[in-house]
Amino acid sequence: MESSDEKIIPGTDSRPGETGRAQEKIIPGVGTPRVDKPDTPTNQTTPPRSQPEEPGEQTDVTQLIAASTRAGGLNEIPHDFDNRNGSWSSISSSNPFEILYLDYKQYRSITSEMVQKNYRIISEFWADKLLIMNRGARDQIEKKYTAVVVNGAERRLEAALNKLKTPASLELSFQQVDGRRLETGFAAISELIEISVQDGHITENQANVIVAKGLKNGLEAHEIEGRIISIITEKGFKPRKEVDKSRTFRNLWMTEDAWTAYQRRDVRVEWLVEYASTLEELGEITFRKKTESEYYLRNANYLPALVNRVTNSASRAAEFERIIEEEKDTEKKYLKILYHLHPALPFRFRGSVYNDIHKLFDDATLAPESFWMAAALFSKDHFRIWLNESAPQVAMLMPETNDVIAFLTFLYAVNRHYPFYLNNTKFTSPEDLARAMKVNQGIWVNVAQHMENGYLPAWFKAIGRADINSRYNAHLEAIINAGLYDAKELKLAAAQTLILIIDASVAVPTLSADISQIVLPEVEGGSVVRSGVRLRVQNAGFVKAAVRLDTDIDGITISENELTFNSYAHESEREVVLIVDSSRLVKDRLYMLNLTVNTSYGAISIPVQIRVVFPKRAVTIKVAQYAAATALYFSLFRYLVSLLMNFDGWLAGYGYVTGEYPFLFFLLVAGFTAGAFYSFRYVKKLEKI
After folding, report:
1. Can you tell me the distance from the alpha carbon of 542 to that of 564, in angstroms, rounded to the nearest whole number?
2. Which one of 66, 175, 449, 546 has the lowest number of neighbouring Cβ atoms within 10 Å?
3. Does the pLDDT of residue 40 top 70, yes or no?
4. Dist CA 689 CA 684 (whole Å)
5. pLDDT tens-digit profile of 374-425?
6. What's the CA gap between 60 and 407, in Å, rounded?
7. How far apart are CA 396 and CA 662, in angstroms?
8. How many C-beta atoms surround the C-beta of residue 99 within 10 A?
9. Can you tell me the distance from the alpha carbon of 152 to that of 160, in angstroms, rounded to the nearest whole number?
């Protein structure tokens, strides 16, 4: 079980750890303050601890300020401070503590050094904004912060500093701020208290309604209860029965007249073959006989009449009649009736019963099955129904929605040290998640999906690590804008981004090349030259690179435009080939360009120099080739003539050939000419002339 300063416990006193003071706790359900024995003698000074946050409606700014104060104040401007809806809005607060980004409830741990440090950091921020606004960016600054805020920031900061710079002034400021809070909160609930006690008695349900309203207006549970008891005591109320020491308003607080009337009407009614004389007893029977009660709760013919007889109140009977008629879901109807009858009844979960949400969540978070079952019950509003009646101060922590994100927000508001389940795998901290991701890339896609659907961001935010979300979003936006990744690759890149943000010791996956430049000084014209560059990812990780030439030159290309590296899949090294087609380039001209390799984590630029020269060697070889081919052609033709004429000499006289074989001579000349013609065409095609 977590300690009270790490876990939100309903009704915990707002100033634990005061010197010589025992810690006071209010039991869920608005019980009487009970003073526990202190762990140390009363004359021993205990170190000041941070105050637990009020369970009322709080903005993210309030939570961030409280976390910053617990950490000893600012060391730099908070990550969210410059966002459009960031915590810079604290400058407009009427609370001098909030103006200096300090939680007034932790005033005992605030030192003069913290005040001065926060003042300096925040003052520099607003001075910078004022300078930017006066140098021409007025429209942007005014649109985001307004000129009134920027111009008045330094004055407000100095005024807050003067109120907090000494221990005496800090104590006085705390009393003033806390006094305004109490005055406003008590004023908000005074009318409701008067209405609730006008009949001479007050029930636990009525007290819970008052507590819920007080919590919304900044009060704490024990303050609200004390206020109620103070008012009703002045009106002659007394606890007439000690039903439950821990839940004071179950003890029949009534005036003398109301108590006399109550005693005269000792009514017993039959419900599910058992007898009851109070709403609580009706609730206990309903709890024991769930199946039978669900049958009788199908309509309003049975229970409301019994409630009317027991309470002698038509309005109370109407409350139950309304629930039965309006709620169509059988299970929710049963729960609403049950806890409206008896808010102190336990909650059933996986075969066990629980009297408070903390113990239930302690067990639910031990295994993935129970974790997600709790999420399912939350989505059906079962927890909300129970806590609205039994512990409204805890119900105040619930978001208005009932999806998984709302469940996680509520779960970690109850205790931020509960684990997170990624599907069925348990993680106790963001660092634990990062360690698992570093050794198992198989969970990366799931992690990215949980970031996308908001489950992991809800966890990070609830445990005070919202900076992970803001930094992740900024990095992911840059990755998306780079346009390198497809949908699947983007999930891997997103997961790796999360690792880098959570674990600062992880090195960014950068690329290196096996050469620093490509120099081709004598590329002979007409040839095609290839030059390879091997790229390697230096650190473990996943990265995709865009390979480009910074100058588009016809005849100079690369083999790959995109390369993917993934050391987890043993794809740490890839090659890109520079291809030079010299036939498309101008001879004796120096081409200078760069081969660039861009990733989300940096870029490599490799200088390239190319010069095309006259192809002496190639020309010599070609001349020799075609000379030999021509000689061979003539030799073959001469050999063919000798065969046809049956002539053994090397040359025959012209007259002899034409006179003896005129037609044959014609055919030979035609064949020679045609052979020469088609040979020339073939050479043109072969040499691309």
Report:
1. 8
2. 175
3. no
4. 5
5. 999 999 999 999 999 988 888 988 999 999 999 999 999 999 999 999 989 9
6. 17
7. 119
8. 24
9. 12
Instruction: Order across the sheet with 238-239: list the strands.
Output: 201-202, 253-254, 238-239
Residues 368, 426: contact at Cβ < 8 Å?
Answer: yes
Model pLDDT, residue 33: 30
Is pTM, for the whole model, over 0.85? no
* Average pLDDT score over residue span 122-148: 87
12: left (phi over 0), alpha (psi -120 to 50) or beta: beta
**Please, where are the H alpha helices in 50-203?**
60-70, 96-99, 112-134, 138-145, 147-164, 167-196
Closest CA to 53 of 419, 396, 402: 396
Identify the band that residue 7 occupies on the pLDDT scale cut at 50, 70 and 90.
very low
Q: What is the mean pLDDT of the chain?
A: 83
**In contact, 100 and 118? CB cutoff 8 Å:** yes
- Count CA atoms within 13 Å of residue 525 on its CB side: 13
What's the confidence (pLDDT) of residue 43? 32
- Name 300's Cβ contacts closer than 8 Å, sequence gap at least 6: 320, 321, 324, 325
- Model confidence pLDDT, tens digit, residues 415-450: 999 999 998 999 999 999 999 999 999 999 999 999
Query: Tens digit of pLDDT for each residue in 318-374?
Result: 999 999 999 999 999 999 999 999 998 999 999 999 998 999 999 999 999 999 999
3-class SS of residue 343: coil
Give kind and range of the element (H or E) at residue 562: strand 562-566
Q: Is residue 448 a contact partner of residue 494, using CB atoms and an 8 Å limit?
A: yes
Q: Are 310 and 267 in contact (CB under 8 A)?
A: yes
Residue 55 contacts by C-beta under 8 Å, 6 or more apart in sequence? 8, 10, 215, 220, 221, 393, 394, 396, 397
Euclidean distance between CA atoms 27 and 74, whole angstroms: 35
Residue 568 per-residue DSSP state: G
352-354/347-349 β-pairing: antiparallel
Give 472-522 as a 3 state SS string: HHHHHHHHHHHCCCCHHHHHHHHHHHHHHHHCCCCCCCCEEECCCCEEEEE
Residue 532 has pLDDT above 70, yes or no: yes
User: Cα–Cα distances in Å, from 630 out to 174, 479, 493, 504?
Assistant: 108, 63, 63, 74
Q: Which two tokens stand for residue 369?
A: 């099955």
- Cβ(219)–Cβ(182) under 8 Å? yes
What is the DSSP code (8-state) at residue 107?
A: G
Q: Which amino acid is present at 306?
A: L
Contact 405, 392 (CB under 8 A): no
Which two three-digit tokens encode residue 92? 């407009």
Q: Using one digit for the tens of pLDDT, what is the confidence trace for 80-104? A: 787 777 889 899 999 999 999 999 9
Side chain identity at 305, as an amino acid letter? A
Name residues whose C-beta falls within 8 Å of residue 81's C-beta, 6 or more positions apart in sequence. Answer: 87, 88, 125
Q: % helix / strand / coil in the chain, to the nearest 5?
A: 55, 15, 30
Query: What pLDDT digit, counting tens, does each position of 207-229 carry?
Result: 888 988 898 888 988 899 999 99
Instruction: List alpha helices for 251-313, DSSP H.
Output: 256-264, 279-288, 290-296, 303-311
Report d(CA 174, CA 107) in Å as an integer.
Answer: 7
* Integer-rounded Cα radius of gyration of the chain: 43
Confidence check: pLDDT of 3 > 50: no
What are residue 556's DSSP bridge partners?
580
- Which one, of 406, 417, 350, 351, lies nearest residue 378 by Cα? 406
Rounded to 5°, the CA angle 355-357-360 comes to 85
Confidence of residue 10 (pLDDT cuts 50, 70, 90): very low
Both structure tokens of 584: 């498309």
